[in-house]
Amino acid sequence: MRANRWSGGAAVDLLRTVRDDSGLLTGWGPDQFGFMHLGFQEYLAAAELRRLAFEGDKPAVLRELAGHYGDSWWQEVILLVLAQGNPSLFAPFMHAALARADFDAAAELTGLILEEAAEATAEPFLQWVRQAPGDDPEHWARQWAALRLLERMLDSAAFQPLLATLRNHPLPALRAWLQSRKVDGALPTCVSDQGGVELVLIPGGRFLMGSPNGVGNADERPQHEVEIQPFYLGRYPVTNEEYARFLRANPDMKEPKLWGDRLFNQARQPVVGVDWEDARRFAEWAGGRLPSEAEWEYACRAGTTTAYWWGDDIGINCANCRGSGSQWSGRQTSPVGAFEPNAFGVYDTSGNVWEWLQDGWHGNYYGAPTDGSAWYAGGDSSRRVVRGGSWITNPRSLRSAYRDGYTTGEADDNLGFRLARAL
Questions:
Q1: Quick one: which of 155, 355, 361, 362 has the most CB atoms within 10 Å?
Q2: Cβ–Cβ contacts within 10 Å for residue 186, how many?
Q3: What's the number of domains the chain is made of?
Q4: Burial readout 373-398 (b: 16 or more C-beta within 10 A, e: otherwise)
């Protein structure tokens, strides 16, 4: 009452103040009041924990409280702590609770929290689900628990794209649960106003970019976590048909190298023989931009952590590169969409043509951005990152983490690009 500067008044005024400001009482009628929770002791414990959290070491207090997650005596205390807002402790407490190995065993309490919390938000559960799965089965179980909660909290438009990122999750029970919801991986699409390029909405999330120590090349390290915001990405590399529209609308632009070569100039083949500036100008004309390197790898992986998005081996007829067993391998570019798409519904991220990206070349990831943006500072601006490998390169270059840098004036028969656009 001191905190609310109580200045006195009738008994009903006192009760109304307690009801409105403490969460201890509820109104049964205009002038009738009752206890919201059974134990005054529990209320006092919750009030003290909130005081300690806001006046002291909040993470430590919430970690200790989360240590009692699922304990029957502490249930009401936890509910009382989270039932009070302004400010809410919901998000930081749920982060602490999700870090517990047994979080998924207290589903009943979590359901009550969602019903009674003053300011429930999906943010802590989204953050957990978007983390790379790793190899810890307990981590997988908590991701599945968080996903089931998100089903209650998100509308279909937000929830369905999230499911598509998890189709290759290592937990069999989670994959079966996705199958029971008939997740088809279809994400929202749009078409660029100029050029007629189909783009897929890539849902935001976090992933580990690059390769761990002992795997891949030195320029793929250090492996680091990156957070990607939702963005649109071309379902396919830009095709000759789409690039021809650009040339007709911009007669000052030169035709790409090999424009007259029948091995490379069919309508549904990816355009090749374009340098970085050609690609940038097309993207600008089409109302978009080139992807950043982080966006590209995130979209290529589509929630996977294997060498290729389909597994750790190149396999047979999974992509167009030298020795991959397709009719085009080592001979020429293939029509876009000739191979299976990844979980985001994006085709040809591995093989067919290298793809120009925004970023200047850096020889490693020390100092790289962690927000998904393109990286220019400190790099070699005369070279730009290319990704994906091509019809004539070896399978190793198709790995999701593999990277190279080409001079901006280079225009080869295995070098194309893909359109991106901000949400």
A1: 355
A2: 11
A3: 3
A4: bbbeeebeeebbbbbbbbbbbebebb
**What are the helix (H) ranges across 28-71?**
40-55, 58-66
Instruction: Calculate the average pLDDT of the chain.
Output: 89
- Please indicate, yes or no, whether residues 225 and 366 belong to a single structural domain of this protein: yes
CB distance 140 to 171 below 8 Å: yes
**22 is a domain residue:** no
328-331 long-range Cβ contacts below 8 angstroms, 24+ apart: 328/391, 329/391, 330/391, 330/392, 331/263, 331/391
Q: What is the pLDDT of residues 147-171, one digit of tens each?
A: 988 988 887 777 877 887 787 788 8
User: Would you say residue 208 lies in a domain?
Assistant: yes
Q: Grade residue 66 by pLDDT with cuts at 50, 70 and 90.
A: very high
- pTM greater than the 0.70 cutoff: no
In 3D space, the residue among 179, 113, 175 whose CA is nearest the CA of residue 149 turns out to be 113
Range of weakest confidence among 4-8, 56-60, 164-168: 4-8
Structural domain for 344, as ranges? 192-422
Predicted pLDDT of residue 193: 87
Residue 19 lies in a domain: no
